[in-house]
Every structure is written in structure tokens, then in C-alpha cells.
Amino acid sequence: MSTTLNTPNPTTDADLQNYQIVNRQYGSCSLKPEFFDDFYADFTSQSPEIRAFFAKTDMPAQKQALRSGLAFLIMYAAGKQLAVSKLEHLGKTHSRGGYNIRPELYPLWIGALIRTVKKHTPDFDATSEKAWKSVLQKGVDLITSWY
Ligand code: HEM
After folding, report:
1. Is the pTM of this model over 0.85?
2. Model confidence at 141, in pLDDT bands (50, 70, 90)?
3. What is the spatial distance between Cα 35 and Cα 145, in angstroms, rounded to a whole number?
4. Cβ < 6 A, ligand 1 pocket
5. Which CATH superfamily is domain 13-144 in?
6. d(C-alpha 77, C-alpha 38), whole Å
7. Domain chopping of the chain, boundaries
8. Ligand 1 atom, smallest distance to 139 CA
9. For 31-36, what is the mean pLDDT?
């Protein structure tokens, strides 16, 4: 586990612009309960393996957990130190010793999330997509560094 990743990188202007776009769009998406339903419907439709991971999951509780997990992922991209320990916790729970979520599954998670944001965000465009990919990848890199 490299130490460089557990301190948010200094945020560039581009990072802050990406953060502002994502924070605004997530703000309106997260107000819609169907947003989290649609995300997991999309994500679990990706493969039988992903469906199996959630076979015994309390999905209402999982959707609540994801609501705050996503908020911390976005805060981390803005350099908020507070988010580091939250993401490190997810790194540990999602690691080999936890749910054993292999790093190659995260691009499917990112793809499902971006499609769901697009579905619930009328002004979603190429700049939005770039912003979401940049913001999500920072947190995913920290979480998977614990695998
Ligand atoms: C950055 C991406 C992700 C975030 C922010 C995230 C967030 C969360 C959160 C907040 C929980 C609740 C429990 C805990 O704190 O550990 C959780 C549980 C879980 N996540 Fe993730 N997750 C991510 C990626 C993934 C991926 C790619 C998979 C692949 C299938 C996955 C599978 C699971 C499973 C199986 C659980 C446990 C469900 C249960 O308790 O039955 N997660 N996740």
C-alpha cells in the first residue's frame, strides 16, 4: 500500500472544475431514490458474477451506504482529507480479505454509474463525462490500491 495515495493529491484548477460539475450533478441525482435503483439494475446486469456478489445483500441498506460512499469519493477528488479514511475503509472491505472485489471490476462500476448519471441529468455532455471519469478514477485508484 503506497503512502502517496492516502493523501489527496493537490487539486489543480481542472480538478476543481471537474469536482464542481460532478458535485452539482450528483447533488440532483442523489435526491432521486430511483437513481440508486437504476444504478444497481445497470451494474448487476453487467455479469452473473456481479449479480452473485449482491445475491444476499440488503439492497435498501446497500443503496443508503452507496449514497454516502459516493459523496466521500467525490470529496476525495477535491482534496478533502476527511474522505481519505472513509475510502481506506472501503479499500479494506473490498480487498482480497473482504468482499474480494478484483480491480478489473471497477471499470464496469464506473461505466454503470456514468450511464445512470447521464439518464438522470438532462444537461449531461462530453465535459460532464470527462469530469466524472476523472473524479471517480481518483477514488477508485485509492480503493483498489488496498486490494
Ligand atoms: C468506488 C467504487 C465503490 C464504492 C464507492 C463502493 C461502496 C460500497 C459501500 C459504501 C459498501 C457498504 C459496506 C462497506 O462499507 O464496505 C459496499 C459494499 C459492497 N460492495 Fe462496493 N463499492 C464500490 C465498488 C464495488 C465494486 C466494483 C463491486 C463489485 C461487485 C462492489 C461490491 C460490493 C459488495 C459485494 C458489497 C457488500 C454487500 C453486502 O454487504 O452484501 N463494490 N460498497
Report:
1. yes
2. very high
3. 28
4. 50, 53-54, 56-57, 62, 65-66, 69-70, 73, 90, 93-94, 99, 101, 105-106, 109, 139-140, 143
5. Globins (1.10.490.10)
6. 24
7. 13-144
8. 1
9. 96
